C-alpha cells in the first residue's frame, strides 16, 4: 500500500487533535464503532498510513466478557495483518501463533478415523501469503491494541449517527457525540450502525448452537488426548451432536516474545489448552432455548458434558476436566446478501455486514481482510475532497460485498452439507 500521508503524527499533535475531536486542515478523521478484531486491525492500518482514528467500544474494558480462545487464521488474515500492523508487531504476531497443525481429522464418536487431510508441508504456515495457523484470541486482541491506548475509548456505546455538510456526528448512549469524516461500523453481528444504514439487512439465526470451552493441558489431560488431537484440528461426528477440538500451544510465550521483539508491549501469558466446541441444535443439547439463554457457565458446562455422554470415555473426560467458568454459548447467525447500496460517509466491516457461521473459520479472516482493503482504498483516494472519500468507500464496498457474501454462502453451505455446524468438516 502506498502511504498517502506517511508523515508520522507526533504525540503532541496527536493529543491535541484527539482533544479537539474533529478533523482539521482537510485531514481525514475516522471513527470506528467497535474494538473487535476488524475495528482494531483497521485502527492499526489507518494509524500506519497517518490517518487519524478513534475507536469507540461499548464494553467498559477489554476483558470484561469471554471472547473465545482459539481462532484459525489463513492467508486473508496473514496479508491483512502484514499490511496493517507495524513490521515489529507483525513479527510478534508470527512469534505468538500456534504450533503448526499437521493434519485435519474427522473421527467417529468412538475415535474411528473417517477422513484425514494432511497439510502441505512445503508451505510456510507463518508467512503472510500462506498463513495457516491457530492463534489465541486474547493474544491477537492484545497485539491489535498495542500502541492504540489513546485511540480506544471503552464504555462508549454508539447509538446512531447523523450526516451533515461537515461530516458525520456519532452519537453515544451517554448522550455525548463526536465528529468524524467517516464512520465505520465494526460493531459486530448486532451492529447498531448497520441497523441505521441498512435497515432492510437480514441476519438469520441458523438454529445452530455452540457450547465453547477449554481444557488446560496438564499431565492428566495430556494423557487423555487421542493421537489425532495432537496432530491438528479434529471433528467428531455422529448423532445430533458434533464435537470439534483444536490444540493451542503457542510457538513462544507471549510475554517472552514481546520482551524479545517489542519490550514496550505487555502481552498476557497464554496457557496450553484444548479448545472444544460442542455443536448442535438447541433441542439436541437437551435444553429449551430460554434455558440456554439464561444458563451460566456451570450450567452450560453441564449441558456440554451431557451432550457428549455417548462419546469415547477420553473425550468425555477431557470435556469434564474443562475450566468450567470459561464455558460459553455461541448462537450461530448468518447474514443474507445485501444488494449494493449508494456509498457515503458511513460504511461497515466484518460481522456487522457479513456475519457467518463459523463452519469454515472465515469470519475473523474476512473482518481482517476488510480492514486492510478499506485502509488501502482510503490511502489511494485521489484527493482530500468528500467526493474522493465517498469514491474510496464505494470501491471498498464493491469488493467487500463480493468476497464477504461469498464467504457467508460458503460457510452456510458447509453448515448445510454437514447437517449441523458441529462437524466443521469443510473448514480447510
Ligand atoms: C465459536 C466461534 C468460533 C469462531 N472461530 C473462528 C475461526 O476459527 N476463524 C475465523 O476466521 N473466525 C472465527 N469466528 C468468527 C469471528 O469470531 C468473527 O467473525 C470476528 O470476531 C468478527 O470480527 P468483528 O470485528 O467484525 O466483530 P467482533 O469481533 O464481534 O467485534 C465487535 C465489537 O463491537 C462492539 N460493539 C457492539 N456494539 C457496539 C456499539 N453499539 N458501540 C460500540 N461498540 C460496539 C463489541 O463489544 C465488540 O467488541 C468464530 C466465531 C465463533 C462464534
UniProtKB/TrEMBL annotation:
Disordered: annotated span: 1-21
Keywords: FAD, Flavoprotein, Monooxygenase, Oxidoreductase
GO molecular function, one term: monooxygenase activity
Annotated ranges, domain FAD-binding: 151-197, 337-381
PANTHER family hit by this protein: FAD-BINDING DOMAIN-CONTAINING PROTEIN, MONOOXYGENASE, FAD-BINDING
Pfam families reported in the protein's UniProt record: FAD_binding_3
Native species: Streptacidiphilus jiangxiensis
Domain of life per record: Bacteria
Protein name per Swiss-Prot or TrEMBL: 2-polyprenyl-6-methoxyphenol hydroxylase
